[in-house]
Design a protein that fits this description.
Elements (H helix, E strand, L loop, with lengths): L4 E9 L2 E11 L2 H10 L12 E9 L2 E9 L2 H22 L3
Antiparallel strand pairs: 1-2, 1-3, 3-4
Length: about 100
């Protein structure tokens, strides 16, 4: 089975963390890792950090967390714009002859 990569967005609630968004990279390992390195945020996970972004990989159809950052609302906005631009670029390059 092919390994898949995606970025997972989650936020802290009174019941724990809830996932609310995913950006899929397919099997583009380098693209996912390169983009994750550009994201703004703190890799030190603090207990009181409400917004998390995780780089995920599927291994044997099971999700595995590779890296995580915690970010502010402003950083999250920047990160979502950056992720959307990069995925748009990658997907449109795939369709070129």
């Amino acid at each position: 089975m092919e390994t898949q990569f995606y970025i997972l967005l989650s936020l802290k609630t009174t019941q724990g963390f809830v996932d609310y968004g995913q950006y899929f990279f397919g099997n583009e390992r380098e693209a996912a890792y390169d983009l994750f390195r550009q994201l703004k945020g703190d890799p030190d996970m603090m207990a009181n950090c409400p917004l998390h972004i995780d780089l995920m990989e599927t291994v044997d159809s099971l999700p595995v967390k590779i890296k995580s950052i915690c970010c502010t609302l402003e950083e999250l906005g920047f990160n979502c714009q950056l992720i959307a631009k990069e995925i748009f670029r990658l997907k449109n390059l795939e369709e070129l002859p």
